[in-house]
Specification:
The structure is a single chain. The protein has 124 residues and is mainly β. It has no helices and 12 strands. The strands form 5 sheets. Strands 1-2-3-6 form a 4-stranded antiparallel beta sheet, with no helix packed on it. Strand 2 and strand 3 form a beta hairpin. It is globular and about 50 Å long. It holds the Pfam family YmaF. This is YmaF family protein.
């Protein structure tokens, strides 16, 4: 038996050379899910930094949870890095929302192979 899932597919414009469609799941087995935005700048290593931005994977609302995340950095010095991991647990806000902290090390890349550190907080 399958799990009932609701959501929608977002068709991106064709300006991105890595053209894709994003699937946004809004409920899983009848339970609403949500996502967070994240963005930042990596540490300065090997003479440069990278920018990154993305959206976490969906997770259930109103229960203790974390989110998986994945994105690619901007191209700088002729290369880019992969960023992926799992956020920390939800941190409640006084207004009833929450956010998550994240941190990690990028994948190895570049003519002179190296990594960058990154960390931050998701949107609410």
């Amino acid at each position: 038996m399958g799990v009932p899932v609701t959501g929608f597919v977002f068709h991106s414009d064709d300006s991105d050379p890595l053209h894709s469609h994003q699937l946004f799941i809004t409920s899983w087995d009848g339970v609403p899910v949500h996502v967070h935005q994240f963005r930042g700048t990596t540490s300065f290593d090997d003479g440069h930094r990278h920018q990154y931005a993305g959206t976490t994977e969906p997770a259930p609302s109103d229960v203790p949870h974390s989110h998986r995340y994945f994105t690619m950095t901007s191209v700088n010095d002729g290369h880019r890095h992969q960023i992926s991991g799992i956020t920390g647990p939800a941190i409640p806000l006084p207004n009833g929302g929450h956010y998550h902290e994240f941190r990690g090390t990028t994948s190895v890349s570049g003519v002179n192979p190296h990594t960058h550190q990154y960390s931050g907080q998701t949107s609410q």
